[in-house]
Amino acid sequence: MTRILIFSDTHGDKAGIEQVLPLVKPAVLLHLGDYASDVDDISYIFPKLEIHAITGNSDYRGSAPGQKMIEVAGKTIFMAHGHHFNVKEEFKDIAYGREMRVVTYGQGVGADIVLFGHTHIPYNARQGDIFVLNPGSASLRAANKTYAVIDIFEDGAIRADIHIIPKDL
Length: 169
Fold this sequence. Notes:
By secondary structure, this protein is an alpha/beta fold. The chain has one domain: Metallo-dependent phosphatases (Purple Acid Phosphatase, chain A, domain 2). It has 4 helices and 10 strands. The chain has helices at 15-24, 42-45, 87-91, 101-108, and strands at 2-7, 28-31, 50-53, 67-72, 75-80, 113-116, 123-127, 130-134, 146-152, 158-164.
């Protein structure tokens, strides 16, 4: 099994990453923007950890791309912060069965998993053959600081979960 830990919208609040990382023990750490630089120091503490980050609308410097395709354990993952796909507005329409452009784009590029942030609202669903996930926000601004974990099993099965960062950690 390969475990992926996903954060978004940390906005400078690295505490959640630092608290959760040793508990989850992922093979891969992903940050979906809005202070993507919050994972920079992690590579020094965990040098064997595979780390990927993209920028969001609050990332004014840094060399991370605005979106990215990666492959982990044989699965193709499309990462986007979401602001270029208007996810805040389109997120409201999910309840009406409308598909978001970020998902349509992910399908078009052959993604098995589409990850986005920006809304600060956790979301975990399967749309057709694609897993769609927003880990929410791990920022102090969030009522409940959240993160996501994806497990990819040897047989190709995927399990995706959203978790609340315990306040007592």
